[in-house]
Amino acid sequence: MNTVRLCFAATAVAYLVVAIDWSAADAVVCCNSSSVTSGSGVAFCQNENRTFHMVEAIGGGTCDDNRTALPVRKCCPPGQLYDPEMRFCRPAGADDDEYLRRMMQRLRDGFRVVADAVMVGYDYEQPMCDAKQVLVDVPAVEVRGLMEAEPSAIELPPDYCFDMTPTDELVARTCRLRDQYCGRDGYTCVNKCCKCDQMYVIDDDGRKCKQSEKPFTIFAYETDADGRPVGQSNSTVLPYNIEPRCFTKQMDEDGFTLTTDGSLYLTGDVQRIPETEYCVEYYAKAGAQVVAVLQAFVCGKDTRDSWVYKFIRASDVASVVCLVLTLLVYNTLPSLQNSRNYYVKFYMACELVSSTMYASQWITEDLKGHTCVLYGYFTLFAVLTSICWLNVICFDIYWMLRFVMSIKLFLIMGTSYFFWIICSLFQIYEGIIWDFSDAMTSLQGVIVFIIFVAKRKVIMDLRNKFRGSMDHSESTQINTISGSS
Questions:
Q1: pLDDT top residue among 454 and 3
Q2: What pTM did the predictor assign?
């Protein structure tokens, strides 16, 4: 490894130089020439195929040793230690260097792989748990078991992070299956709206999850036979992060209580909300995280069984069928084969794609991750292209002085989007206005069919077209029979 000594600012050296049973002068901070500083101001560097916040030569090692750094994952950010009582990282205090030295000494005493290391690479992050897991503190006896077991000669036990507590105890954290902890042995799990080290912050761009300066603290309560809270329990509350399966979440204004089974008891509505239909989070304005208040965000009423939802989904399917029929008509009749109607066909083709995407929403409601993002962008592209072609048609009709067809086309798109804008401005996502705008959008294909196909001239042309085809077919059969006889 070709390395050079990296000189940091005086403020950064305070937490980057760590000595393990030797003086700070014996520990050399090493990074290669591609070392840069991230946007957060924390330095990081590359060693072989790994990226660390720091690479350090320890003991008899030098920056020129051709060795890959041993990964050491620290649970808390630089300058912070882990408080098991609050389950949160807090500043280490004025003796930051001494605290880090003690932590690394404990690791070195406990794990042979650290004691034999010549190069150490530091990373600062907790294990990333998936939807079925929860981040837990490993019991002290298990930490000792990890040390006594024969560890890898290459790295520390994977999927663990290590840190020191204010009482100089070595603590480890890792991800475990929620089913092994939630509701068992004095543990209660709660769905947290943001990730473990984030909270809701309101700024000019709305409500977003941002880095938290406040520990996530909530207590679970025992319940009586009717499910009502009766007293605080001694359960350890473990937060996890899963998006509730609902379209909108409403902030509860009347107070709530977490029960030991992971449900939420709403004080105002006197009802219990299951764990899949809510999340809780600290909620504050930008710059006021210290006075943040823990709030509950509850799913609205599930409308998938309502007649409005079923009508809208049926309207989406009807729009797709009507748009297909309209395209067939425009590609069948010679009287409609002109340059002006090509604009109409392009518009209807784009509208068909967007209507198909709307109609498939009942299948794609549970999409997550990159698939959901791609689906959203593709739907947006289809909607924008249909609107662009509609503008072309309106401009062409304006020049032809047909100011009635323009009104019809305005009613197709303008009405629904007008109500959508109203709903967005006033944050109305349910009720009569929202249902009306949704229904108008779903019925666009049907309205297009009525405007462009259900006209006297088009119907007469279709009848003549099919009558002529039938007469030609009958004439061909007669000629065939005559010739064969």
A1: 454
A2: 0.60
